[in-house]
């Protein structure tokens, strides 16, 4: 309860522009004196990229999530070396994109304030600002993360799109996140884009008998088959109505049993997540933006490095 109350305070003071410390060592307005234009620079570069290519919002939000779930929010997903051995080369991350945005932001910051702003903070801010570009919610981003020096492909064990509710809840609990965070953050799939290969089994051969997943709406299965033939791996949007706009329509899709992934559909298998979904449908997502902001603040604190731990990279793809 104390942590929950503190997060509410962080959000409130962020709105008011007041600096506040978190027990884990992050601060709002952390760069106020050492790089006062840092957040404005991040915002400017991010808006340039995402305005031109709105699908980058989903990509950058996904990158932030994938980073935080492996070794915490330390920018380790950004590292390239040793080649083919770091997190970005793990199977779930091969489709992650948007690195050029982070690199462009970091380059702009290095020109203004060399060696000051961490790549972990850059990624946290870029994810927030990218969502804002497509009409998503704002949330405060306390800063002061340090960059990790270790990135291992073998350690990437993310929540799977094929996972059931019990496995998903454990993944989130292990990171200090709860069941509500799980369903709320799943709502980001409203702007999600995937590939046909991820859903082939669910629509063509779910139990090995040339059948589809019975938890899926049959009309939705037919629509997916028209989009994805058995040998196809084209891209597919998770919420066709709002792929370029951040809103709560994802929950309408899930309530109609039109969740693209098993991890979406299984949210109807838990009383708490199911209740949240139907509440958002009934109220046209009245609390979703506020809830999403709260959960994103929590995500940004997962296993962070502060103080003398880690480093401030000069280039995000390489340790110093």
TrEMBL record:
GO terms for biological process: hydrogen peroxide catabolic process; response to oxidative stress. The active site is at 66 (proton acceptor). It comes from the Eukaryota. Its cofactor is Ca(2+); heme b. Ca(2+) 2 binds at residues 190, 239, 247. It is an enzyme of class 1 (oxidoreductase). Belongs to the peroxidase family. Classical plant (class III) peroxidase subfamily. This is Peroxidase.
């Amino acid at each position: 309860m104390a942590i929950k109350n503190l997060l509410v305070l962080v959000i409130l003071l962020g709105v008011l522009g007041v600096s506040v410390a978190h027990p884990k060592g992050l601060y709002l307005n952390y760069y106020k004196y050492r790089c006062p234009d840092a957040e404005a620079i991040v915002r400017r570069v991010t808006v340039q990229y995402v305005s031109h290519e709105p699908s980058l919002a989903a990509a950058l939000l996904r990158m932030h999530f994938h980073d935080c779930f492996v070794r915490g929010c330390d920018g380790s997903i950004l590292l390239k070396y040793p080649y083919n051995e770091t997190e970005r080369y793990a199977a779930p991350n091969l489709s992650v994109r948007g690195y050029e945005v982070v690199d462009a932001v970091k380059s702009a910051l290095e020109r203004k304030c060399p060696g000051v702003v961490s790549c972990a903070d850059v990624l946290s801010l870029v994810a927030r600002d990218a969502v804002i570009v497509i009409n998503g919610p704002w949330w405060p981003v306390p800063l002061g993360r340090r960059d990790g020096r270790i990135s291992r492909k073998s350690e990437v064990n993310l929540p799977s799109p094929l996972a059931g509710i019990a496995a998903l809840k454990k993944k989130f609990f292990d990171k200090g996140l709860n069941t509500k965070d799980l369903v709320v953050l799943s709502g980001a799939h409203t702007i999600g884009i995937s590939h046909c290969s991820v859903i082939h089994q669910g629509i063509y051969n779910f139990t090995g008998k040339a059948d589809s997943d019975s938890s899926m709406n049959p009309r939705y299965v037919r629509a997916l088959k028209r989009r994805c033939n058995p040998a196809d791996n084209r891209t597919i949007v998770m919420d066709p109505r709002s792929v370029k706009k951040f809103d709560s329509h994802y929950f309408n899709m899930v309530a109609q049993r039109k969740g693209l992934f098993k991890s979406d559909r299984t949210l109807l298998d838990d009383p708490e997540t199911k209740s949240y979904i139907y509440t958002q449908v009934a109220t046209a997502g009245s609390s979703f933006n506020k809830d999403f902001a709260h959960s994103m603040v929590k995500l940004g604190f997962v296993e962070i490095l502060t103080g003398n731990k880690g480093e401030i990279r000069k280039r995000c793809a390489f340790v110093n």
